Amino acid sequence: MKILGLETSCDDTSVALYDSEQGVAENLLSSQVDLHDQFGGVVPELASRAHLVNLLPLVEHLMQRQGLRPGDLDGVAVTAGPGLVGALLVGLSTAKAIARACEKPLVGVHHLEGHILANALTADLVLPAMCLVVSGGHTELVLMREVGRYERLGGTLDDAAGEAFDKTAKLLGLPYPGGPHIDRLSVDGNPDRFRLPRPLHKDPRLVFSFSGLKTAVRLEAEKLPRPYSDQDIADLSRGVQDAIIDVLCQRLFQAAKQHRVPAVYLAGGVAANQGLRQAVAAEAERRGLHFVPPERVYCTDNAAMIAYAGFCHLAAGRHDGLDLDSFARAPLTSWR
After folding, report:
1. Residue 304 and residue 292: Cα distance in Å, rounded?
2. What is the pTM of this model?
3. Beta strands in the chain (DSSP E)
4. Assigned domain for 146 exists
5. pLDDT of 244-270, one tens digit each?
6. Looking at the 3D structure of the chain, how many domains does it have?
7. Residues 107 and 189 occupy one common structural domain
8. Are 92 and 150 within one domain?
């Protein structure tokens, strides 16, 4: 089964082909980082226009590289949401046109399900599992009993962890997107210089909060002389990195213990954070739990995860009609 995947939920235009016999055959991406860097964040209208320019050429390039005609496809999968509605509509309209033209089934994929199932592109899933979905827009704990059966156990009460990383980086004058720079610079930071708060550390609920952490970082930064020295930036980066990772790990393994799962997974852009991957791997080993981090290329937004999720839906006999609509916000729900 060959599934074409399209992903345009935010600022990356991506197309991919998933082949049930060989796995990910192709995963192409056109980044908009340089376009949005001058604004310090994603500008929705610019993102939508860039998708309009980039998407069809990427699809044509993929089909040519794979030597495929539209009729060779078995289905078309596309991110339906959550995301920027204008950006989503570009991908959804294109997917509908392709599905209609070649008379193939259409599957709308929830963006968070795509991120969770990206773990299956790296190694076989061990289920049931506890998944920590962590990105610039999401910080959630999801119990995956099987592919298609999900239960949201808790999430952030305010800001997402990825947003806290990016806002801290912007405060320190680091380039956009800032999370990877915090991760890299924290390696040379002094872990004892800035002991930042661990929000809701003693709260028994499976919830997160990072707005207070951002305030704490700003207050510490205001005490420092300008311009910030390289060591100041490294030390604050280390403080932020350690605080966020401590909270994420605590909640992930708290949830895993409560539900007695044999495996834990990371999903979303922040899953590429080296410090987080190392911390989860160490704690999972200590507790005897299965953990294999997703390949970094499948952590950030990509169409390979959407194509694979579409394959799972179609293999189970589920697809959508051409009246499928996009959505900016909606929780991940079970479909199996």
Report:
1. 18
2. 0.95
3. 2-7, 12-19, 23-31, 75-81, 106-110, 129-134, 139-146, 149-155, 263-267
4. yes
5. 999 999 999 999 999 999 999 999 999
6. 2
7. no
8. no
